[in-house]
Amino acid sequence: MNLKEFFDKNPGLLTQFKKCTNKDDFMSVAQENNIRFGAGKLDEVYAYVLSASGKNDSSEIDDDALSMASGGAREGIPTSEIGNNTSIAELELGGTSVTLIQ
Predict the structure, then answer these.
(1) How confident is the model over 9-59, as pLDDT tens digits?
(2) Percent of the chain at pLDDT exceeding 90
(3) 3-state SS string over the chain?
(4) Can you give the residue ranges of every domain in the chain?
(5) pTM
């Protein structure tokens, strides 16, 4: 399952993430939902959620966001492919269901 499929399957979780105002809030929601991130994936997932919610870390619109809003591509990846290179694993660890985003 990729990132887009994961959030399509878990829209309530995406809604919770969209309400976050910073990475600390984002990590708190992830921990509450037993979600763990592989190396470097936190920033990727956080950026994905920001773009899905129309938010940006700064008051300026960056080139990627502008390109995506205008139907273009981000870093050579077609907009429809964003999030497709992230692997999601549902695990059972010690009786607790854990989602690993790698």
Answers:
(1) 889 999 999 999 899 999 999 999 988 888 888 888 888 888 887 765 544
(2) 19
(3) CCHHHHHHHCHHHHHHHHCCCCHHHHHHHHHHCCEEECCCHHHHHHHHHHHHHCCCCCCCCCHHHHHHHCCCEECCEEHHHCCCCCCEEEEEECCEEEEEEC
(4) 3-101
(5) 0.63
Main-chain phi, psi angles of 2, to 5 degrees: -100, 180
Residues 6+ apart with CB under 8 A from 79: 68, 71, 72, 73
Calpha distance 81→11 (Å, rounded): 19
Token readout for 16 is: 């919770």
Residue with tokens 């994961």: 6
